[in-house]
Specification:
Keywords: Hydrolase, Purine biosynthesis. With about 200 residues, the chain is mainly β. It has one domain (about 5-200): Glutamine Phosphoribosylpyrophosphate, subunit 1, domain 1, CATH 3.60.20.20. The chain is about 15% helix and about 40% strand. It starts with 5 loop residues before the first strand and ends with a strand. Bound molecules: the ligand NC(=O)c1ncn([C@@H]2O[C@H](COP(=O)(O)O)[C@@H](O)[C@H]2O)c1NC=O. The ligand NC(=O)c1ncn([C@@H]2O[C@H](COP(=O)(O)O)[C@@H](O)[C@H]2O)c1NC=O binds next to loops.
Length: about 200
């Protein structure tokens, strides 16, 4: 099944909260997840000329602001980070409403999640729907939300989670076989009062 870009929020078997993002792509497979600093992961084309071909393929996919993790499939990551003072629900609702779905051939949805050690919200905007929801995370499980054929917040969109570190989870989700065309994965794990980030790219 091809679900395009997707995010996962969940809890490891040893109780740590995490957010993950995977690029799956038919059209732009030559990209990497690159750790920019301890708080930011970007999705970048290997050939920088690609940046000018499509406005939606280069962006920060994870940002950590004061131990709060934001994960998205586009440039709304930074905007949400700037609006966290609205509260998690309202930051998602505001930015998704203002930025709307992507104006490409597929009307690709924007997806997002915000997570800290206390709570998690997921959200999306499509050309016909918009939703933000608080979710309760369960040990050893991750809820996914993807851009194609899976753009909904639904308890049935759940996968088992293997691994307890950011590195292990990134490897696991990049290689998650059910979802086709893996390209790159980035993960942020909340471990006590620190957030640890890791990336894993195809053929790395
Ligand atoms: N965020 C991304 O990494 C991303 N990659 C591709 N897109 C958009 O989705 C369209 C379809 O891409 P694909 O065939 O790789 O699923 C692209 O033309 C582009 O407009 C993206 N936009 C949203 O997911």
């Amino acid at each position: 099944m091809y679900i395009g870009r997707f995010l996962v929020v969940g809890k490891t078997k040893d109780g740590k909260l995490f957010a993950a993002y995977r690029v799956s792509s038919r059209s732009f497979p030559n990209r990497v997840a690159k750790k920019i600093n301890d708080n930011t992961v970007a999705i970048i084309p290997k050939d920088l000329n690609e940046i000018f071909k499509n406005p939606y393929i280069t962006y920060n996919c994870i940002k950590v602001v004061n131990n709060t993790v934001i994960v998205t499939n586009g440039s709304h990551t930074d905007f949400i980070g700037e609006k966290l003072h609205f509260g998690k629900r309202d930051a998602l609702a505001y930015v998704l409403t203002v930025m709307d779905y992507e104006k490409d051939d597929y009307k690709t949805p924007r997806i997002a999640a915000i997570l800290d050690k206390n709570e998690c919200y997921m959200g999306y905007v499509t050309h016909e729907d918009i939703r933000v929801k608080k979710v309760e995370l369960k040990e050893g499980k991750g809820y996914y939300l993807g851009v194609y054929n899976s753009c909904k917040i639904d308890e049935n969109q759940v996968i088992d989670i293997e691994g307890t570190t950011a590195e292990e989870i990134a490897e696991y989700i990049l290689n998650y076989k059910e979802f086709e065309h893996p390209v790159a994965c980035a993960v942020a794990v909340i471990d006590k009062d620190k957030v640890k980030i890791a990336t894993k790219n195809k053929n790395e």
